Amino acid sequence: MGRFVARRLLQMIPVFLGTTALIFFMVHLLPGDPLAALWGDKAPDPVQLAALRHQQHFDEPLIQQYLDYMGGLFTGDFGKALDGRPVLDKITEALPVTVQLALLAFGFEIVLGIGIGLFAGLRRGKVFDKSALVFTLLLISIPVPVLGFLFQTIFGINLKWVKPTVQDSTDITQLVLPAIVLGSLSLAYVARLTRTSIAENIKADYVRTAVAKGLPRRRVIGTHLLRNSLIPVVTFLGTDLGALMGGAIVTEGIFNVQGVGHALYQAINMKEGATVSGFVAFLVIVYLAAGLIVDLLYAVLDPRIRYA
Amino acid sequence: MPDLTKTAEETPAQAPVAAAAKPEKARSLGSDAWHDLRRKPIFVISALLILLLIVIAVAPGLFTSVDPRAGDLREHFHTPPNYSHFFEGDWFGYDGQGRSIYARVIYGARASVVVGICVTVGTTILGGIFGMLAGYFGGWIDTIISRVTDIFFGIPLLLGSLVILNAFTSRTIWSVVFALITLGWTQMTRVMRGSVITVKQADFVTAAKALGAGTGRIMFKHILPNAIAPVIVVATISLGGYIALEATLSFLGIGLQDPTISWGIDINSAQKLIRTAPFALFFPAGMLSITVLAFIMLGDAVRDALDPKLR
Amino acid sequence: MTTVIENDSQKSGRLEVGTPLLEVKDLHVEFHTRDGVAKAVNGVNYSVAAGETLAVLGESGSGKSVTAQTIMGILDMPPGKVTQGEILYRGQDMLKMSNEERRKIRGRKIAMIFQDALSALNPVLSVGYQLGEMFRVHQGVSKAEAKAKAIELMDRVRIPAAKERVNDYPHQFSGGMRQRIMIAMALSLQPDLIIADEPTTALDVTVQAQVMDLLAELQAEYNMGLILITHDLGVVADVADKIAVMYAGRIVETAPVHELYANPAHPYTKGLLRSIPRLDQKGQELYAIKGLPPNLLKVPAGCAFNPRCDVATDLCRTEIPALHHVTDKDGKELTGRRSACHLWKETLHG
């Protein structure tokens, strides 16, 4: 296991360097000037533009900028917003709320997604399975903004079960509805993946062995079938964190949750390019770290990976 | 000990059903899939829906004579739907700028369909080529392509698109297509690479090599037709996803911009008045969902038909 | 799982050698597929006594494995369906038992060894866990005790360094060692009967003999009944007491093992024996039965073997032969010998 972790960490270094470099070059080398965009269609004021360029170090040689940027990433400096505040401040301010929201959504999609997938897979072709397929198909088809407004209208405005928008982002009970919206798309994928995996594995020889051993049905399913079937689901959950972070931008915007996504949403609307790329760089690092954790979890679940 | 009872053609012990079903195998996977698809109501419904959407996207003028960009604030500010005037523009009501929602929903189809199809075709071609090269040649070519894929894969699609689109001062359909292809090709590359590696090990490829077939011939005549099925499945399913993503980006204000008409933009501008004029949100959102649904259903049907494992 | 099944005391008493432990009576199994109904088993009868080895011989699709799976209660239903027959374990029809009653027989009284140990063992659980699970579930022992028993079992089937390897995973063992683990698992609760479905087919030739010897040795030691399902005549010769040859879901010949080898009473058996390569016929072309096993969706009319048979007559093409008692040249009945061939006399004596 130790060797596996070490190898995995080593493999992550080039990916980390490459990914962060990619973000840097997407910001700096693509045509168009993110600062000039601040003026919209009007011609930018040259004096102000020059001052901004200086503040954002755009007037330095590209290689110098890159080194500064990389140095910043390692020391936790994600650049400065246009108002001069470090982007990291904005991130740490909003992070606890988003972590809560994401964990709620993650828990929601795992518990419900795996549950639905398990029962559908065990009863393949029956009524529950077919309803689950239709239900997940609908969830996948409704884009997150639409789903957000739909739930907001139904549960917030018509039924008045919850407030349509979040008043206090630190109150976790108010985060439940946004979390459901955030997790719903992934819930559908988790459910479908679990279902397929269960339906495939239920025919596996080792499940037949478990039955032939005279194990109770609950043990055959819980210990033998489910554990093996969850391996692809865990892989999906790793890449899914990226979608969750993207979705948080939309969900937090709709429900007025004061988290990282909301701050990013505002930065986009204010055309604050530096803040946007700082946030994205941070989120990508979180994403890579989460991917690593998932890989380790994968190795715990599947010894064939561990000893490969 | 040798297999004493085996006749020449016998395969290892299998369930009798499998042995019994064998003579049916003569049909090719492709024609078999098509045979299956035509009988599936889900496939027929989604294909018809998509056909209709494409017609709307190509010739929106057939469905409405109203200008989707012309607004009359005095007459029509948030006028609710009037169901007595079909096709006149009143059908879905008017938005906050007095523009016909019906006309905007019709004209908005083009952006969604173009982005969806272009991104899917682009990622499939790009990913197909890289995946084929990596899978077929292996070695250092595979190493380079796989590492670059890993790097691009490390950036979530929506987040990366934010950064790329942020660099464009004015954004058109093509900037969105560019951003999504730039970040989306990795998935296809991985699918294609895996598929090619599997097929490459098949005996008929070895046989073709032994018979002296050239690299190009082996790649296109022998491997490509046998490796393409999973790529088609992933492509069809992701098409709906790209349409949803375009709408999400436009909704966030970083995708398409006025004067391009996009359901995402309209959803965004309707959200402020969700209580007073919910219809302004409902119709573009509904059309968007139906469109995505149609493509996802098509993808599901194609997967069921092409994936022999699930049959 | 410490509860003992009610009539355990009467069941667990060791039977005398020769008393039937398991009897399959007139078993019919069908598969419902998209293309129609496949009759996989059509009226199979056989029995096994304690300490006895019955070899069931046949090609794939002959119904030998389906019969075994039906006995074990692990047949996939649907598409499989038992339409007729009885499976008597110590006189009780298992097909009429509740799921819970059957579960308590599985693993504890009747155990099974599968063909491919790599796929039959759970890839993500250690072999020690999978062996110990038998004791934990059926006897309710502690985790530590189960592990100790697992090591003991691994020693018993002669896996070197059992103590060090108990926490290893199936893919870390060689094919022969994995099959030994399967055998250990089947033997763990000292069942009355073991069903071994092609236990050596997936193994190297040199390892096959070792595994077979181990199985035979343990069977004799515990006085277990053994149903050995195989398509390999060579495996059968050394260990079996009697043989049932199956073709297209029916038993076509039964006989004590050496009599069958010396003098088959069915053209199919004869063909099988002729297709064994022999050293004294070096240089001659190897015999193979012509044609293919029948499609179970459209089994030929009459004797299912008739299209492949060299001696088939019009009678064979119209009437399904019964499983006749077989007599010697003087008309004396040969015990334990039967043949489902209209022409058994010509085949046996001619």
TrEMBL record, chain A:
It is a multi-pass membrane protein. One of its GO terms (biological process) is transmembrane transport. Residues 95-298 form the ABC transmembrane type-1 domain. Keywords: Cell membrane, Membrane, Transmembrane, Transmembrane helix, Transport. It is found in: Cell membrane. Gene3D superfamilies: MetI-like (1.10.3720.10). The chain crosses the membrane at residues 12-30, 97-120, 132-155, 175-193, 225-250, 279-301. GO terms for cellular component: plasma membrane. Pfam families: BPD_transp_1 (PF00528), BPD_transp_1_N (PF19300). Its main location: membrane. It comes from the Bacteria. PANTHER family: DIPEPTIDE TRANSPORT SYSTEM PERMEASE PROTEIN DPPB-RELATED (PTHR43163), DIPEPTIDE-TRANSPORT INTEGRAL MEMBRANE PROTEIN ABC TRANSPORTER DPPB-RELATED (PTHR43163:SF7). Belongs to the binding-protein-dependent transport system permease family. This is ABC transporter permease. It comes from Kitasatospora aureofaciens (Streptomyces aureofaciens).
From TrEMBL, chain B:
The chain crosses the membrane at residues 42-63, 113-136, 148-167, 173-192, 227-245, 279-302. One of its GO terms (cellular component) is plasma membrane. Keywords: Cell membrane, Membrane, Transmembrane, Transmembrane helix, Transport. Residues 10-21 have a biased composition (Low complexity). It is a multi-pass membrane protein. Residues 1-24 are annotated as: Disordered. InterPro entries: BP-dependent_transpt_permease, MetI-like, MetI-like_sf, OppC_N. SUPFAM superfamilies: MetI-like. Belongs to the binding-protein-dependent transport system permease family. This is Peptide ABC transporter permease.
UniProtKB/TrEMBL annotation, chain C:
This is ABC transporter ATP-binding protein. It comes from Kitasatospora aureofaciens (Streptomyces aureofaciens). GO terms for cellular component: plasma membrane. Keywords: ATP-binding, Cell inner membrane, Cell membrane, Membrane, Nucleotide-binding, Translocase, Transport. It is a peripheral membrane protein. One of its GO terms (molecular function) is ATP binding. NCBIfam families: oligo_HPY. The keyword Membrane applies. It is found in: Cell membrane. InterPro entries: AAA+_ATPase, ABC_Ni/Peptide_Import, ABC_transporter-like_ATP-bd, ABC_transporter-like_CS, Oligopep_ABC_C, P-loop_NTPase.
